């Protein structure tokens, strides 16, 4: 990060004399980016608890072989809705919440470009979330076709499938509006002197992510719309009996689905790239290469989608192409990991909770990246396709990757948001509890997958019992660890802690640290000058 603001918190004008909405109107009609960002974060945490509860129900069932508590169809509903709620309800809204809260502060803007559209894009989320949740209670229950909703299974589901399709349309519209807002804000509302190559990396990663969202969310909308017309209007896009092709659905879905993985991880890279230099007391190593690597990841993410489809019987030339393209995308990702480690190298490190979560992120994300490289190899992928090896791989990338970065960012900026320091001791307990329980849950799944345990199965052979029991114990430990996180957040927001200064962290750079803590309702009414 290379931007330095002129003046300090007491010198810049942050007008608070405007009429400030209060009560329920402040939230229902919110146009202030900080309020909307906070609502996104609250919504995403509620979705995290809901999706996490479904995960624990799955793990209870899998504690022992045999069907214990849930019939196979209900179990499949749990696995499907767990995926949909976690991706579209928890991770993506949480990252958009960070974007809303932090991007205007980091570029010296007074707010997001389209404040009312920002409000609308948030209020679409509870509607989509309620539609998804309510689908459990219609005849036939929620969709049980897996979060990918593959045809032809999704063509045979009850009305819960239609509710999921409409929910995805609504949540997708919210994402597109959020992305437009972020692009316009970053390109048009930077403070004088804040060139693109002086922006904090978090703004860069979100700018690139926003372009990805605009490119791929309409593709997902097209895929689920074709599902809808196949189901109700007599078309035959994916119905083999009507001359359609179920594999076509996979191509369309994964053309959205693979860039989507990077939509959920690139902003996490941005958070980690803010935290590690602060607690290393050094500049980020190789800032420009980080920007170019992020751009390379985004571009390459469009040419690797069919590595999810090696088991569909594609020609060997297609397998070779997607195999090598997938290996190629690991290079810019490796650049990022190298740069983070190089930033810490010979730095004056301290290990506050945000730094612990960022180092934890590097560790677990690298494991997830390596297992991704392994399943990129087509012959290996065909062997472990749809086994628990794949479950382990993407949970290491998404739970460990996205969630650890979100925790890191929350602890990092929480004193700035609330004006109070969080409880450092409890934060470290939360980190170690989360780190140990996460690995206890998901590392054994690699062995389950290599031994041939298929994913999404309600029952399994006796030889898989031990690893399933270890994973279930870890999952409950992991889930209840997040209640400690909730307690820490509530305690801090209620002002039970030491008062935070404007700077908060020694060595933190960027415009947000020139503002008082807690942040005033209106910030940067007079844009700061950036040298």
From TrEMBL:
The pathway entry for this protein reads as:
Energy metabolism; oxidative phosphorylation
Q: Which reaction does it catalyse?
A: 4 Fe(II)-[cytochrome c] + O2 + 8 H(+)(in) = 4 Fe(III)-[cytochrome c] + 2 H2O + 4 H(+)(out)
> What is this enzyme's EC?
7.1.1.9
Name the CDD domains on file. Cyt_c_Oxidase_I
Gene Ontology molecular function? cytochrome-c oxidase activity; heme binding; metal ion binding
Membrane topology is:
Multi-pass membrane protein
Location of this chain's protein in the cell: Cell membrane; Membrane
Q: Which UniProt keywords apply?
A: Cell membrane, Copper, Electron transport, Heme, Iron, Membrane, Metal-binding, Respiratory chain, Translocase, Transmembrane, Transmembrane helix, Transport
Q: Which family does it belong to?
A: Belongs to the heme-copper respiratory oxidase family.
Pinpoint the Cytochrome oxidase subunit I profile domain residues.
18-531
Q: Name one GO biological process term.
A: aerobic respiration
The record's listing under InterPro entries reads: Cyt_c_oxase-like_su1_dom, Cyt_c_oxase-like_su1_sf, Cyt_C_Oxase_1, Cyt_c_Oxase_su1_BS, Cyt_c_oxase_su1_dom, Cyt_c_oxidase_su1_bac
Q: What does this protein do?
A: Cytochrome c oxidase is the component of the respiratory chain that catalyzes the reduction of oxygen to water. Subunits 1-3 form the functional core of the enzyme complex. CO I is the catalytic subunit of the enzyme. Electrons originating in cytochrome c are transferred via the copper A center of subunit 2 and heme A of subunit 1 to the bimetallic center formed by heme A3 and copper B.
Please give the name of this protein.
Cytochrome c oxidase subunit 1
